[in-house]
Amino acid sequence: MQYKELANTGVKVSKIAVGTWQFGHAAVWGELSPLEEYQKIIDEAIDAGVNLIDTAKAYGTSEEVLGKILKGKRDKVLLATKLSRQEYDYNTARSELEGSLKRLQTDYVDLYQIHWPKINIPGTWHKADMEKKDYEDVFNSLIKLKQEGLIRFAGVCNFRLHNLEGLGEQALDFIVTNQVPYSLLWRFYDVEGVSEFCKQKNIGFLAYSPLAQGLLSGNFDKDVKNVQEKIRQANILFNEPVYARAIKVVKVVEDVAAEIGATPSQVALKWVMERDVVVSVLSGIRKLKHLEENIHAVDIPLTEEHLKKLDEASLNFQNTLPQGLELWIGDNSKENLEKLGIKA
Q: Which one of 3.90.1570.10, 3.20.20.100, 3.30.450.40, 3.90.550.10 gives the CATH number of domain 3-217+263-300?
């Protein structure tokens, strides 16, 4: 396993982490696996050197599952969870964290994150923007929780550039991570300046959905109508006309994978790992074989030429999308996508 330092903390984080949304949210992912399967995934991940595990209250029973399977192993992992409510005051944050600690069967978490900022995107389920008090509450709550020894480090998730700037310098010195959707098919955090800002402030990305919910694995055909899962249907990438354009990027990934004897998933993951701003890539795992494949992505030999080829295809795709989008917007009808500026 390879590692990167978490900001200036001296703490080393594995380049691959385990995301556990799939461990506990049957309404989204379908029938859950037996507890024993998740136990095997976590045990093998730890044995392979993975030391970061990410969860959230919003991930159904994920925290409870982790609480059970991490017994006797708590000291081997960096455990990350989130404040999933969009109320950031100390009393709310403290109450929410106490619930997470109980479910996780631990007395502290290594990284506590704000799951979502308030954002307003017309035509989507995002209806409100952050206000000055929200930013103040975020900082005051997280700093108090750290002072109380309930969290070691603080992070945010899904924060765009204006959200980060709204936090202020004192908070930015305190925040160590920004967990964002980041892949060859989702480069908003690059083109809108978030990546560069975070590098300047020494805030590392925890990259989630690095395979674009499996689209970059090469396991989907050209007909988007064959995509059945509701969570994917809610994703802009799995809706036309975006899907057909995304498949062209997948083809480039498949070509590179064939050249070096790797899988498309490994190529896509390795590309994310190689980004300077990324400290760890969150790999959502449901099956043990996928964990093994993803861990081996750390060692595949992507050349500068390969990286350039992938980057070019990625940005060509990104440039077809209007700025300010989120992956999941609630209404992916043709009419609504056109209102957002996504046209054939």
A: 3.20.20.100
